[in-house]
């Protein structure tokens, strides 16, 4: 729906809402990048900044919620407009959660900088985070461009993130079994991996909102699930 | 405490009350309605929406042959009420209009007392004979139109002396007094304040327990609030007809979407 409303201030309201979502998306991407960078470079100052900046994301979420409430009350949107407003609300919640995960990564980093490195895990976390950042960026691009195909592609990529998480889970188990002194660091690294994996799920949900916005229907839950760690230790690593 | 129940807007698969087939309406040489097919369900509120001049009122008026009174108007196609063609020669339009009542945009009470306004229909159709019977019909109808408490002490004063909103509810009371099977409403709330509008909407909701209501409205929100089915007319065509939920959340035709969201084109 590209044509304009007869009441042009309605168009401005909807544009403002979507601009807020894009701004929030930018903040979340930056928080994720910085959180991982701080972990990699053991930069305590940068991790503190990520924790502080989460307030900006939370503030944007609150602004979006009150603005959507205002648009719903005053404009009584219908059809595509209604779906726009509802998707803005949902996406805002997903982004807010992503911000919390980045903040949590930063918090764990402050503990991890005191410990010895676990070889190979931080680069793997960085690759996983890169992947999720691209998913988030593409999900938001697809949203703004109303591109359901692109959104579908983002959904498919979540499988890879899940597989990377599985691999990391397995290698962290191995490290913990090799030397129990690694357990504290490994637990923190595992939570970081889990946080990134969850961010991938939120990016997927944002992509699904785009599909809802374009087609009027949420896609079926037939997406292949790659996270099998909930069913126990994969491949008999731990008995 | 709160039972899980179907939303009130959910539509039961009830019987079809009015079936229109290939309906065309002409005013002289101008075609106002083009090939409209629609099934109006029983015990359901159906709203007709669309821009001015799209033919929704014309089509509504076909359903109880109100267009008969316009000389240049010609109706083609078939309109079946309970399976019977209402344009068949043996159908008496007056009897038909007792079964298919109508409420207009502008309140038009008879220049008679409030009581006589309501009693008129049941009297001429022989539906109530004794004074007690008529009293009962008048009170019941006025109560159902949410007007009784306001007028019960002055039933013998002229109906035209009431306020606009009260007059409209009087007209609704008059329309329901003959116990119609279908009630047609042509923008019944356009001259009413929000409170009177809410009272009429509450009444419509109650009326649908017994019969089908067809309402023409320019208020999208009213159509969304009161109806279970919505038909969108545009330039004499029925563009889209479906569940009100669907029309207002995910319409299939871009013309419907443009209209309900207030866009150009």
What is this structure's SSE topology?
The complex is a heterodimer of chains A (239) and B (265).
Chain A: H1 8-41, H2 44-75, H3 79-112, H4 121-145, H5 148-178, H6 183-215
Helix pairs in contact in A: 1-2, 1-3, 1-4, 2-3, 3-6, 4-5, 4-6, 5-6
Chain B: E1 16-27, E2 30-41, E3 45-49, H1 56-62, E4 73-81, E5 84-85, H2 93-99, E6 100-103, H3 114-124, H4 131-144, H5 148-151, H6 164-177, E7 182-186, H7 194-207, E8 212-216, H8 220-226, E9 229-234, E10 237-243, H9 244-249, H10 254-261
Parallel strand pairs in B: 3-8, 3-9, 6-7, 7-8
Antiparallel strand pairs in B: 1-2, 1-4, 4-5, 9-10
Helix pairs in contact in B: 3-4, 3-6, 4-6
Task: Write structural notes for this entry.
The complex is a heterodimer of chains A (239) and B (265). Chain A has 239 residues and is mainly α. Chain A has helices at residues 8-41, 44-75, 79-112, 121-145, 148-178, 183-215. Chain A contains six helices and no strands. Chain A starts with 7 loop residues before the first helix and ends in a 24-residue tail after the last helix. The model of chain A has no long low-confidence stretch (mean pLDDT 91). Chain B has 265 residues and is an alpha/beta fold. Chain B has a single domain, classed as P-loop containing nucleotide triphosphate hydrolases (Rossmann fold). Chain B has ten helices and ten strands. In chain B, the strands form two sheets. In chain B, strands 6-7-8-3-9-10 form a six-stranded mixed beta sheet, sandwiched between helices. Chain B has a four-stranded antiparallel beta sheet with strand order 2-1-4-5, covered by helices on one side. In chain B, α7 (194-207) links the parallel β7 and β8. Classes of the chains: A mainly alpha (239), B alpha/beta (265). Chains A and B meet through α3 of A and α8 and α10 of B.
């Amino acid at each position: 729906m590209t044509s304009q409303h007869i009441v042009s201030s309605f168009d401005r309201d909807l544009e403002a809402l979507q601009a807020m979502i894009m701004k929030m998306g930018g903040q979340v991407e930056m928080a994720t990048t910085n959180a991982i960078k701080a972990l990699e470079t053991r930069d305590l100052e940068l991790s503190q900044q990520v924790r502080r900046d989460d307030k900006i994301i939370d503030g944007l979420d609150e602004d979006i919620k009150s603005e959507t409430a205002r648009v719903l009350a005053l404009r009584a949107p219908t059809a595509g407009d209604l779906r726009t407003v509802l998707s803005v609300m949902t996406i805002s919640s997903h982004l807010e959660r992503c911000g919390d995960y980045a903040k949590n990564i930063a918090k764990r980093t402050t503990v991890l900088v005191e410990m010895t490195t676990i070889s190979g895990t931080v680069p793997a976390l960085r690759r996983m985070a890169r992947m999720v950042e691209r998913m988030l960026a593409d999900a938001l691009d697809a949203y703004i461009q109303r591109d359901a195909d692109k959104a579908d592609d983002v959904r498919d990529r979540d499988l890879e993130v899940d597989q990377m998480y599985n691999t990391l889970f397995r290698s962290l188990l191995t490290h913990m079994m090799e030397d129990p002194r690694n357990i504290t660091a490994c637990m923190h690294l595992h939570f970081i991996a889990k946080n990134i994996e969850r961010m991938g799920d939120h990016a997927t949900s944002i992509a699904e909102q785009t599909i809802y916005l374009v087609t009027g229907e949420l896609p079926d839950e037939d997406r292949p699930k790659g996270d099998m760690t909930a069913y126990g230790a994969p491949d008999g690593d731990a008995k | 405490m709160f039972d899980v129940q179907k939303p009130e807007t959910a539509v039961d698969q009830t019987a079809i009350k009015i079936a229109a087939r290939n309906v065309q309406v002409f005013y002289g040489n101008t075609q106002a309605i083009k090939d409209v097919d629609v099934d109006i369900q029983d015990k359901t509120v159906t709203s007709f929406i669309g821009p001015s001049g799209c033919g929704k009122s014309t089509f509504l008026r076909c359903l109880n042959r109100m267009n008969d009174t316009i000389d240049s108007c010609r109706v083609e196609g078939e309109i079946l009420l309970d399976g019977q063609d209402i344009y068949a020669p043996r159908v008496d339009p007056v009897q038909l209009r007792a079964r298919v009542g109508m409420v207009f945009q502008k309140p038009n009470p008879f220049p008679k007392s409030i009581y006589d306004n309501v009693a008129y229909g049941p009297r001429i159709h022989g539906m109530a004979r004794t004074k007690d019977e008529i009293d009962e019909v008048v009170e019941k109808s006025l109560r159902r139109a949410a007007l009784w408490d306001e007028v019960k002490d002055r039933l013998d004063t002229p109906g035209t002396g009431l306020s606009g909103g009260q007059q409209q509810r009087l007209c609704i009371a008059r329309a329901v007094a003959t116990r119609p099977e279908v009630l047609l409403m042509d923008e019944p709330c356009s001259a009413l304040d929000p409170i009177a509008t809410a009272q009429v909407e509450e009444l419509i909701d109650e009326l649908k327990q017994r019969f089908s209501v067809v309402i023409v409205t320019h208020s999208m929100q009213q159509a969304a609030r009161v109806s279970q089915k919505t038909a969108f007319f545009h330039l004499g065509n029925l563009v889209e007809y479906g569940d009100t939920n669907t029309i207002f959340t995910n319409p299939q035709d871009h013309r419907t979407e443009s209209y309900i969201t207030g866009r150009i084109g």
